[in-house]
Amino acid sequence: MREDRSDSSCPLCEKKNVKRKFKMPQYSIFYCLTCKVEFNANFPPKNSAKESFSEEYYLELQKEAFSDQMENHMLDPSIEFYQKRLRQVEGLAEGRRLLDVGAGFGTFLRTAYDAGWDVEGVEISPFGSEFIRNKYGFNIYTESLTSLKLEDNSYDVISFWDSIEHMDLPGRQLIKAYQLLKKDGILILTSDNYKSLMSFLGRLSYSLSFGKLTYPVERFFIPYNKTYFNHDNMRDLLQKIGYEIILFEKMQYPVSKLKLGHFEKPVLKILYGIESFLNIQSQFTYIARKKIES
Ligand SMILES: [Zn+2]
Prior knowledge:
The chain has 294 residues and is of the alpha/beta class. The chain has helices at 55-61, 63-71, 79-90, 107-114, 126-136, 170-180, 197-208, 215-220, 231-241, 264-278, and strands at residues 18-23, 28-32, 37-40, 97-101, 118-122, 139-141, 155-161, 181-192, 227-228, 243-251, 283-290. The strands form two sheets. The protein has a seven-stranded mixed β-sheet, with helices on both faces. The chain is globular and about 55 Å long.
């Protein structure tokens, strides 16, 4: 018997004031009318191992994103973003204590360590956690951030690099990060932007084909994401929790980190060019401060 993993309650407000938006062969995407956010009602995807972020996820399914950085972290094309963000927060944070949530293979942690930060990570994948411990010797917690017993008001910077969209209850994660940050502590958050040209093309092809052409939706609204944020509903969520937005930028995920067919790569490069021209890029970054009302 096939296990039914469907859960149509909103990952932010946890209520069922939702409607179905896209029905794909393997999963359905719903929209919360209260939070104005889209989410995957069949997360984690069927066929994936008990843990979504298993060895198979890193070494096969997402090989393009991870294989180079496993060899040498400097080969990761995201390094320049990491270094740029660290420079941006250097003057904002008082101390140097940094926690990266969804640390993957530790490339950001290593980059921060090299820049003089005192680093720790959270990574639910036992495979990823072990890799970081063995390769770099950093302290890694192999459980969800929300279940960790860490001291409140103790970190200067907490980062979420392309990880919040994979988490079951993202609002709770960002509230926990808020509690763990010191007063005026800094959050760095990057995620996919579903107010972009890519998502527009997916939506358009789905509606013009009356839901028959699902491929473009599946390519961008990937089954490994729980929540499909956009820069507006993420800003609202952060501000509701109490964060003060300091910086907002749109960007794009490096082409070389994506699994793409022979013809898809040049097409994606053209689409990225159009996205940049129109300022509707498919990723965003927020840097925000823990503000305490006096
Ligand atoms: Zn909701």
